[in-house]
Specification:
single chain, alpha+beta, Phosphorylase Kinase, domain 1, Transferase(Phosphotransferase), domain 1, Alpha-Beta Plaits, 3 domains, 19 strands
């Protein structure tokens, strides 16, 4: 972590909530602690002042209970080694390091005022393309500097990009948290066990999930995930279960960014290549990815000229228990890979083109000229036809289930094509994971002579 100055940051006295917080005024090396900034699972971060010149720094101290754990201490010191080797304007600066009186290691880093990118996304949603390119430019430069030193960050995500504000109001993008960075040099010690996953499950590259070797292309995968996240305001693969998300990263078709964000369709191929399952199929370097992204961004196909219209959507999602995905066999994978194409064929024939391929889901949608109860009734009939086709699919695996959901809402359209809007923001209306069968939202059922049965999710009714 790196120091931030969040609204309402607490002083040290009584604010740590356990874990052996050091009191204000404690001297660590040449620094005096001012207040606690953050308290995580690996250590605590304090704002501190250097006695010699009054410089503000962020001091990260390993948790007391981890001080006697050789692996934890080695990983903590590895972060210092990485920051010493990677000196770059867009990488957090290491000021000094040493040990506390009780023997725990500490790192003193530059103090940054501003916010991390995850907070920006939480407050504002997806970012415009020029803004994303401006953020990724220095990020790629920082990664290039790390890769030149045989260092792989392997935990790229919005919360690890900090937007630092200078006194003059200028902004500097800073890559932070090298706590799980990997030294790719042949003689570098591996600080993880063979069964330990290192990284953030929702953004991990397939080789990380499999426990394989990580390279610069692992960070390219992370850049692809981050670009998707920043431009869409959501991650490429989302599910309540981390196991399912990892399965999707390792096996699923990459979703089209232009289906969920008003960006040029040319970006789809760039993101898909950066997120290729096989590392050899990705861009070789962050700069190569950035150059491709810029070229695709220049191919503006009018995606930003969107018109609001009513629309209908039909969502198909697979349902699989987590235990089955922990060690998927060939039969399970074959059924999961074959189910959605069957649904897509039925839906396309009924006039519902695919909008988003989400790995374990398929979202189709079409625009309407106005509220059309007949069209809504036909959509429910189409959803039932999809369920009928899936029920008789060849080699159906009993561990694989599905839900087919119908929704009606406002869409943002480029001509007749649905590109964005409430209609395809499935986070607000997709059924809970426990729901199976054919369901429809209350908006889709409004005024129709369709009898629906209640299910565990009150947003939808069972209609088939």
């Amino acid at each position: 972590m790196v120091a931030v100055d969040p609204p309402g940051a607490s002083t040290l006295a009584g604010s740590a909530g356990g874990g052996g917080a050091l009191p204000a005024g404690t001297r660590i090396g040449e620094f005096v602690l001012d207040r606690l900034l953050a308290h995580g699972g690996f250590g605590q971060v304090y704002q501190a002042t250097r006695s010699s010149d009054g410089r503000k720094v962020a001091v990260k101290v390993l948790h007391g209970e981890l001080g006697g754990t050789p692996n934890a201490v080695a990983r903590f010191l590895r972060e210092a080694e990485v920051m010493v080797r990677v000196r770059h304007p867009n990488v957090v600066e290491l000021v000094s390091w040493g040990t506390v009186d009780d023997g725990r290691p500490y790192l003193a880093m530059e103090f940054l005022t501003g916010t991390d990118l995850s907070r920006v996304l939480a407050e504002h949603g997806r970012l415009p393309l020029p803004r994303v390119l401006a953020i990724l430019e220095p990020t790629c430069a920082a990664l290039a500097a790390a890769h030149a030193q045989a260092i792989v960050h392997r935990d790229l995500k919005a919360s690890n990009l900090f937007l630092a504000r200078a006194a003059d109001g200028s902004e500097r993008v800073v890559l932070i948290d090298f706590g799980i960075a990997k030294l790719a040099a042949p003689d570098a010690a591996d600080l993880t066990t063979s069964r330990q996953l290192v990284g953030t499950p929702v953004t991990m590259a397939p080789e990380q999930i499999a426990g394989g070797a990580v390279t610069a292309r692992t960070d390219v995968y992370g850049l692809g995930v981050m670009a998707f996240h920043l431009l869409a305001g959501r991650l490429p693969f989302e599910d309540e279960s981390p196991t399912i998300v990892q399965y999707l990263h390792a096996h699923a078709r990459r979703p089209k960014l232009s289906a969920v964000a008003p960006v040029p369709a040319a970006l789809d191929e760039v993101i898909a290549r950066a997120m290729a399952i096989e590392p050899a199929h990705r861009y070789a370097t962050p700069r190569e990815f950035l150059d491709a992204l810029r070229a695709a961004a220049a191919d503006d196909d009018g995606a930003l000229a969107l018109t609001p219209r009513p629309g209908l959507a039909i969502l198909v999602e697979t349902r699989v228990d987590d235990e089955a995905l922990l060690d998927p066999d060939d039969a399970l994978i074959a059924d999961l890979e074959g189910l959605l194409p069957i649904a897509e064929s039925v839906l396309a024939a009924a006039g519902f083109p695919a909008v988003v391929h989400g790995g374990n889901s398929l979202l189709t949608a079409r625009a309407l000229d106005g509220d059309d109860p007949t069209a809504r009734g036909q959509a429910i009939a189409t959803a039932r036809a999809v369920a009928d086709a899936l029920a008789v699919r060849a080699a159906a695996d009993p561990r694989v289930g599905f839900v087919v959901a119908v929704h009606c809402a406002t869409a943002l359209c480029a001509g007749a094509a649905v590109r964005a809007g409430e209609l395809i923001d499935v986070a607000y209306w997709s059924p809970d994971p426990s729901v199976r069968g054919v369901v429809a939202t209350r908006a889709a059922l409004d005024g129709l002579p369709v009898m629906g049965a209640a299910v565990s999710d009150s947003r939808v009714m069972l209609v088939g």
